[in-house]
Design goal:
six-stranded antiparallel beta sheet; endopeptidase fold (from Nostoc punctiforme); globular; alpha+beta
Length: 149
């Protein structure tokens, strides 16, 4: 778990260092800070923070900390966001996964550097690689749920 905390802290520092090219808004910074606080929490089916998280509960809680209300389900969260090409994702954007192109079944929050945070049924709130392993082939799309200019 210490490795995960170090990795998330490193990603936060990298994101701050990239501020010249893509400064992170206060909302994005707060979403990443919330993820840091939730890291290592257990997985709980339909969990929204009391005793653990499921994937959409984690997204909803992190965004709520930033003052942004999102719906509770993966399906409804997709409808609340605007698509973003994978190459233009910013830390704090949502990423959706599934086996069918139009049926997302899992979500997480992009951290930068090809990594994302999510609530895994086997590892709880954790960080995973976006482009490879189990998740890479299941990545459907990214979305921006923040109304920034």
């Amino acid at each position: 778990m210490r490795r995960t905390f170090k990795l998330l802290t490193l990603l936060l520092l990298v994101s701050a260092a990239l501020g010249c090219a893509h400064p992170l808004s206060p909302a994005r910074q707060e979403i990443l800070a919330a993820l840091h606080d939730y890291m290592g929490q257990p997985y709980a089916r339909a969990g929204d923070g009391e005793g653990g998280f499921d994937c959409s509960g984690l997204v909803q809680a992190a965004y709520r900390r930033a003052g942004v209300e999102l719906p509770r389900s993966v399906t409804d969260q997709v409808k609340s966001c605007h698509p973003v090409p994978a190459g233009r994702l910013l830390p704090g954007d949502l990423v959706f996964f599934g086996q069918e192109p139009d049926q997302p079944t899992h979500c997480g929050i992009y951290l930068g550097e090809g990594r994302f945070a999510h609530a895994s049924s086997s590892n709880g709130v954790t960080v995973s690689d976006l482009g490879g392993g189990y998740w890479g082939p299941r990545l459907l799309f990214g979305c921006d749920c923040l109304e920034e200019q």
